């Protein structure tokens, strides 16, 4: 059994044990002291909170009273007989916007708490007009989530929502940026002694109205327009906005067209082999896009401030175009610099002993891809943060495409794998820029390692585009990985009666006199196979690199074929040593015998 004394719980001795005299000592007494100290600390905290609220002029209702801010006097406007419905948040916003649409600022001021503002009736009406303009132009109200109950309980919220089923006395309608910080536009439920609880714009929100209006209110150009053009046309657009929006888009398109033509004209007048031509070619489209987005943003920021959902849609799109243009310019410049450095030094990169430069440019290509990925991620992050898309209609549209995004990511998984494979190739240096590789039955030089493909240049100046996955999951030959020298070989099909020793003399003559054979002692002449109609003789010699070796290989084949033909023609009558296969002659003899027979 528990006995409550002094706010702490004391344990009654167990009668089944040996009886003790007095209070229990040790751990039980320590628990009593801790509980009393906790109760004292909690009382001090509650007293501090109550004192702070009393200093602010408000107190929180307790017990069975409505959940409101209690104030000594409600300092709102409107006078007696206000037509506003202030019992629920939705009713207050609806009637406030209706009074503002009719220009009844005296009635609209009833929905504002002027406790932090020293304002007369005229100032109250002016602040009401400014607040209406802010709500109408710069805030997208989510009417579905706006409670229509006096206690502001959200009855449609999920049970996982921590605020589901809980009464509230403060609601955040929206957030706006002001002086480098985000300020909320809040609704508060207040009650004065003997009065009914009402919902109004909070006193801090009303105090911030002049500064917010200076940022989000109409420009001087808009204020100079005739009253007829400033009237609402449809949706949240005024007539001047309906006229101005197509004009802004037209001016932006005109600026983009002039920029595109100017860059193209200047590029055509420069040397195609010069650096300036490459720079202009790289930044042509990104600069054009920047001209369109920049002109659109400049005109909007200087002369027009579009309102409501239209601004929520255009602001993210405008920022997206600017970021895309800037990233496009940076990536184009990066690609141009890298391509210029590699293509202008292709011959030096392919030099047999130039491993240092090949390693350097291969690492640079990997760094370029990493920088590209970082720039894209940084641009996306900046777009999400700078545009405050989580509070805009544009974000809702993007979020609604989440399922489509998952499908696209699933479909692009191979592309993402190729990007990682390209970085793996660059850092593992299995295929460096300038390396000679044997791929798909032909030898090529690696010219570029891209995100998803490698660009190879074949010996006859063709460009072979190979997927990077082929260089990570399949085997290939790298002829310059360690030693650029290469053993070239020529295989000839000779008659079984050919005297191979007779061919070693011409072969030795070739390897000792040809300037591209770097190690004559390493050369060899071997019979490596045979078939029913011929034997296969291989002649091998080493060259300093694949390019030189290919030319030497062709000369060696020509020399040995000529030697075999001379030896074959110099022999007398059959039967005797033969060097070239006789299959064709035997078939012709058989055909003649059949005709004669």
TrEMBL record:
The chain crosses the membrane at residues 237-258, 279-299, 319-338, 370-387, 393-412. Residues 415-481 form the Mechanosensitive ion channel MscS domain. The keyword Amino-acid biosynthesis does not apply. It comes from the Bacteria. It is found in: Membrane. Keywords: Membrane, Transmembrane, Transmembrane helix. It holds the Pfam family MS_channel_2nd. InterPro entries: LSM_dom_sf, MscS_beta-dom_sf, MscS_channel_2nd. This is Mechanosensitive ion channel MscS domain-containing protein.
């Amino acid at each position: 059994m528990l006995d409550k004394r002094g706010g702490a719980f004391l344990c009654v001795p167990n009668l089944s044990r040996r009886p003790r005299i007095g209070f229990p000592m040790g751990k039980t007494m320590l628990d009593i002291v801790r509980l009393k100290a906790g109760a004292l600390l909690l009382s001090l905290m509650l007293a501090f909170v109550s004192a702070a609220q009393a200093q602010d002029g408000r107190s929180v209702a307790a017990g069975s009273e409505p959940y409101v801010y209690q104030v000594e006097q409600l300092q709102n406007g409107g006078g007696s007989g206000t037509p506003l419905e202030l019992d629920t948040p939705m009713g207050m916003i609806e009637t406030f916007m209706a009074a503002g649409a009719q220009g009844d600022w005296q009635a609209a001021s009833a929905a504002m708490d002027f406790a932090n503002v020293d304002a007369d009736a005229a100032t109250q009406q002016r602040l009401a007009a400014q607040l209406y303009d802010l709500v109408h132009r710069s805030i997208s109200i989510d009417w579905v989530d706006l409670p229509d109950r006096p206690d502001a309980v959200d009855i449609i919220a999920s049970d996982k929502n921590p605020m589901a089923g809980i009464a509230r006395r403060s609601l955040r309608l929206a957030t706006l940026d002001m002086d480098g910080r985000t300020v909320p536009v809040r609704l508060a439920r207040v009650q004065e002694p003997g009065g009914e609880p009402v919902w109004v714009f909070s006193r801090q929100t009303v105090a911030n109205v002049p500064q917010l209006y200076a940022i989000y209110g109409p420009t001087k150009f808009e204020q100079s327009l005739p009253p007829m053009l400033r009237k609402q046309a449809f949706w949240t657009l005024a007539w001047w906005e309906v006229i101005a929006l197509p004009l802004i888009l037209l001016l932006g398109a005109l600026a983009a067209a002039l920029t595109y033509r100017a860059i193209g004209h200047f590029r055509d007048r420069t040397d195609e082999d010069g650096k300036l031509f490459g720079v202009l070619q790289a930044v042509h489209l990104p600069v054009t896009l920047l001209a369109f987005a920049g002109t659109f943003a400049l005109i909007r920021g200087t002369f027009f401030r579009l309102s409501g959902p239209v601004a929520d849609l255009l602001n993210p799109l405008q920022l997206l175009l600017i970021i895309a243009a800037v990233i496009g310019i940076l990536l184009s410049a990066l690609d141009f610099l890298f391509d210029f450095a590699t293509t202008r030094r292709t011959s030096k990169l392919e030099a047999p002993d130039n491993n240092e430069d090949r390693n350097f440019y291969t690492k640079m290509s990997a760094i370029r891809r990493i920088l590209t990925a970082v720039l894209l991620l940084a641009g996306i992050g900046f777009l999400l943060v700078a545009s405050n898309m989580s509070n805009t209609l544009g974000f809702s549209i993007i979020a609604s495409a989440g399922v489509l995004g998952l499908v696209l990511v699933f479909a692009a998984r191979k592309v993402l794998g190729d990007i990682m494979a390209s970085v793996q190739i660059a850092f593992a240096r299995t295929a460096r820029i300038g390396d000679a590789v044997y791929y798909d039955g032909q030898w090529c030089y690696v010219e570029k390692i891209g995100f998803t493909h490698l660009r190879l240049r074949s010996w006859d100046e063709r460009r072979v585009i190979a997927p990077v996955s082929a260089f990570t999951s399949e085997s290939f030959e790298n002829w310059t990985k360690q030693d650029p020298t290469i053993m070239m070989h020529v295989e000839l099909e000779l008659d079984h009666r050919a005297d191979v020793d007779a061919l070693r003399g011409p072969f030795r003559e070739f390897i000792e006199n040809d300037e591209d054979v770097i190690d004559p002692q390493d050369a060899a002449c071997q019979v490596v196979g045979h078939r029913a109609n011929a034997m296969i003789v291989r002649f091998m010699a080493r060259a300093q690199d694949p390019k030189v070796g290919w030319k030497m290989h062709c000369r060696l084949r020509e020399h040995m074929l000529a030697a075999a033909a001379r030896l074959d023609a110099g022999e007398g009558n059959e039967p005797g040593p033969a060097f070239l296969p006789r299959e064709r002659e035997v078939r012709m003899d058989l055909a003649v015998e059949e005709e004669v027979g």
